[in-house]
Write a structure and sequence with these properties.
Blueprint (H helix, E strand, L loop, with lengths): L1 E5 L5 H8 L4 E5 L20 E7 L6 H14 L5 E4 L3 E4 L2 E10 L4 E7 L10 H4 L5 H5 L5 H20 L3 H10 L7 E6 L2 E10 L5 E4 L5 E4 L3 E2 L1
Parallel strand pairs: 1-2
Antiparallel strand pairs: 2-3, 3-7, 4-5, 5-6, 6-7, 8-9, 8-12, 9-10, 10-11
Length: 225
Amino acid sequence: MKIYHFEELDSTNEYAKKIAEPGTVIIADKQTKGKGRLERNWFSPLGGMYISIILEQETPVITLIVGLSVCKTIRRYGLDARTKWPNDILVKGKKIAGILTEQGQEYTIVGIGINANISLDCLPEEFRERSTTIRQELKRDISKGELIEVLLGKIEADYNVMREGRVSELLEQWRSLSAVMGKTIEVKTPGKSTKGEIMDIDEDGALLLRVKNGTIKKIIAGECI
């Protein structure tokens, strides 16, 4: 594993695309143009943890699997972290981490942002009500070096389980830590939104939503709101 550590980058995912070598990890203390899903900006001040990992294997569930690894890492600090389909990690219902997966021709880049040693006052005002940080929850800073070490260990372990063909085990763990399973929620998809009860995720990571007429709708991509 090659690890590149920078004080500042525009985006760890964008730098990873230049390298495009599986097994490489890009870490930045700060991002000036951090990216989230749907072309959103990811506010990335000092104190957060921003990391991109270049993987060789493409799978529809990689975002969920890495999200599970992130969730388990944060729970190690005594926080009740929960997964939210498709790419968020929540603590007390507030976003504490997010995943952005981008696919290349022969590689997959998974970007991870964790609100670690950040004060809520540092976040843009529009994010404060629905976001939290490890510092906010623990009332202290943590070692980012330890956080990265634990996270990479969890990702490597879960990735190996996936490569052994035991994806169902990981998805069961994801379900057990889900913040939204069994809840009625609105899911935004391109051009429309659908309201229903989240029944499950399938082996491809798609959301199975029971809508008003009782039928089960499979949603491959979208956002729970």
